[in-house]
Amino acid sequence: MIENLLTGFALSLSASNLLYCFMGVTIGTVVGLLPGLGPVSSIALLLPLTYKMEVLPAVIMLAGIYYGVQYGGTITSVLVNIPGEASTVVTCLDGHQMAKKGRAGAALGIAAFGSFIAGTFGILMISLMAPLLAKVALAMGPPEYVALMLAGLCLVTFLSGKSMLKSLMMAALGLLLCTVGIDSVSGQTRFTFGVTPCWTALISPSWLWGSLVSAKS
After folding, report:
1. What's the distance, CA 68 to chain centroid?
2. Which among 21, 73, 79, 203 is placed 20 to 30 Å from 181, CA to CA?
């Protein structure tokens, strides 16, 4: 296992692959400034750039795009209090407050260093603990997934604002709206009442970000 990791680092740290990584991070950061375009959507849009590339440089470039988009969403969270994607929502709590006090540069710098340290540590831990995590993931069933969902809803209601009642009401409304559309497991339509546009669900990223921007303005 250690030999495979060393071989991977030796291939990834070549000059050409580092250049592809830099290009991916730069492109990802620019794309991450656009609210609503998360890492998955950005990789899907930029995937044609790698069609004529070799496998290793293409994967490295896509990984750079992924991390660049993650940080690009932090910039809008700090400067205008609009998260670029889901993982930067919490950054709005402290980052935008620092920006309003004239410390936007410090907030972005702290976010960059924090992302680098946490990302490096996370990659190392995943590389070393992947077999154990795979066993834990395979052992999870419906009760564990329900517990994770409830934990996520509790965090959303706790972090969303001062009024716990309003947060719970919005979480419940979101759950109700998400039940409309095609079930991702069975493929059956739910609560569409024969209306074809409802098959793709009532909640879309464009709708969500438009509502968020309207609320901010």
Report:
1. 11
2. 73
Q: Which two tokens mark 125? A: 């831990």
| pTM > 0.70: yes or no | no
Per-residue pLDDT of the chain (217 residues; tens, 9 = 90+): 677 777 877 887 888 888 988 988 888 888 888 776 777 778 888 888 888 888 888 888 888 888 888 888 888 888 888 777 777 777 877 888 888 888 888 888 888 888 888 888 888 888 788 888 888 888 888 888 888 888 887 877 776 667 777 777 877 777 777 777 777 777 777 777 776 666 665 555 555 555 554 544 4
- The residue among 210, 202, 201, 212 whose CA lies nearest residue 89 is 212
What token pair was written down for 27?
């492109």
What is the number of other CB atoms lying within 10 angstroms of the CB of residue 18?
Answer: 13
Q: Which residue has the tokens 């656009």?
A: 34
